[in-house]
Amino acid sequence: MKAFARATMGLGLVVGMTAGASAQSWDMPTPYPDGNFHTINISQFADDVREATDGTLDITVHSAGSLIRHPEIKRSIRSGIAPIGEVLVSLHANEAPIYGLDSVPFLATSYDDARALYEAQRPALEEALAEEGLTLLFSVPWPPQGIYAKMEITSIDDMEGLRFRTYNPGTGRIAALSGATPVQVEVADLPTAFATGRVEATITSPATGVDSQFWDFLEYYHDTQAWIPRNMVIVNSAAFEALDDATREAVLDAAATAEERGWASSEEVTVSATAELAENGINVITPSDALREGFQEIGAQIATEWAEEAGESGASVLETYESLR
């Protein structure tokens, strides 16, 4: 049945690509629940496209991995199973270094720096996507990342042996350098993983903590503000180019609006979600100097490794970033 469904979706994409200005329906897989600010923003994007095209392009958002699981979304768009979707950029850092840049710890910890990093990164990101037949529509940041745990962590030494949830190559490297035990877990599975003891700590945003009601199974949030990762909305380039000029322009206009709206929402959610964690009994802690220094050392090593792997093109992106800060 899964094979048949994928074949049917692929056929639908081909038909849509050849339909010109006729009405089209696009299925859009996304990883996060309906109440998440990323999903809310994307749903508004879909509404804006539908309104601007008088229904010529109808995008149906399938949230929370209900259509395609997060790790498979980018591949499904590339292969034509789905025409459009949302992914965490750094989830694909193993494919090309540029995908991991926004998740290098302590490289960009403020929204101003995150904006500058995105501006510096975007041309190389678009180039990498283009090589896979993909087009970047927009990218929106998560709130700054902090450490959730069942116990207070006062120094990097406390990470030794801790069952630490990882979700991309960057968090896997943090686990390795801190001596933690990496456990690969998707967002939707975190409540069960914490409740069963499979996971004892994770680095993620206050928004994710609220979405998954972390207060039901842990007690501490260390507000390290380690980095500001981003999601990206991407489209199959062939499907996008098959749209008529007016429809493509409507999609690009809606994407530009969604990007600005999403950045503003992210900053608002940082404040509101952190407050909601505290209101529900989680101890929101300013990290100790020892913990911050330990993570800064790890961040410096990861940044060095990234620059070595990325080579001259990576060095150019970092130089541009420094000039924009």
TrEMBL record:
It comes from the Bacteria. Transmembrane segments: none annotated. Keywords: Signal. The keyword Cytoplasm does not apply. Residues 1-23 form the signal peptide. Pfam families: DctP (PF03480). The keyword Glycoprotein does not apply. One of its GO terms (biological process) is transmembrane transport. Gene3D superfamilies: Bacterial extracellular solute-binding protein, family 7 (3.40.190.170). PANTHER family: PTHR33376, SIALIC ACID-BINDING PERIPLASMIC PROTEIN SIAP (PTHR33376:SF4). This is TRAP-type C4-dicarboxylate transport system, substrate-binding protein.
